[in-house]
């Protein structure tokens, strides 16, 4: 089985310097916390899967290229997985093709509002068109996904945590990411 983590950098780009756009830091309060969250995500995955491949765009490669590959080698954009490699090849190719065909139109759309189309809707529609069954990690998720952002009770009561949009702007969530990084020695390694 091949384990792939992905990082799409386009939502972190801010072309309008006058706009208050939290997407420039991946939705986090700071670029530092954004980078720590990427490192933490990869390190957590590597506990289960020692061999992980990175799938990213050119800017994502530039952002990650100087990182020591003996430490952090990839970035997780959420949990999506399976064993149908052809499905994922088709999904990735078609999603990037759709993005590339519509680059000009992205300038007229608020950043961060279109990625759900490529990440979730297109994934669902492609799986449905092929008659593939989709499973979920969690049985029940609240409507506003508050269960996913409870850093303080993970892993004691929650088996999974995912900082979605609004949680990345919460100083408490950002502090929890920093504390979690201490256990991996990230601060000492990168002289943070």
TrEMBL record:
It comes from the Bacteria. Residues 1-66, 69-178 form the DUF6734 domain. It holds the Pfam family DUF6734. InterPro entries: DUF6734. This is DUF6734 domain-containing protein. It comes from Dyadobacter soli. The lineage of its organism: Bacteria, Pseudomonadati, Bacteroidota, Cytophagia, Cytophagales.
């Amino acid at each position: 089985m091949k384990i792939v983590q992905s990082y799409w950098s386009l939502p972190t780009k801010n072309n309008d310097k006058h706009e208050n756009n939290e997407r420039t830091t991946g939705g986090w309060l700071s670029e530092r916390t954004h980078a720590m969250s990427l490192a933490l995500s990869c390190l957590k995955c590597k506990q289960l899967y020692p061999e992980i491949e990175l799938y990213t765009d050119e800017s994502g490669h530039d952002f990650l290229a100087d990182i020591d590959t003996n430490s952090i080698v990839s970035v997780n954009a959420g949990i999506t997985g399976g064993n149908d490699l052809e499905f994922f090849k088709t999904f990735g190719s078609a999603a990037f093709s759709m993005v590339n065909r519509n680059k000009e139109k992205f300038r007229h759309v608020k950043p961060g509002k279109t990625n759900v189309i490529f990440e979730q809707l297109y994934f669902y529609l492609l799986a449905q068109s092929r008659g593939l069954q989709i499973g979920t990690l969690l049985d029940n998720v609240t409507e506003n996904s508050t269960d996913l952002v409870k850093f303080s009770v993970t892993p004691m009561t929650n088996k999974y945590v995912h900082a979605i949009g609004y949680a990345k702007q919460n100083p408490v969530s950002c502090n929890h990411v920093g504390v979690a990084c201490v256990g991996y020695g990230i601060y000492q390694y990168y002289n943070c």
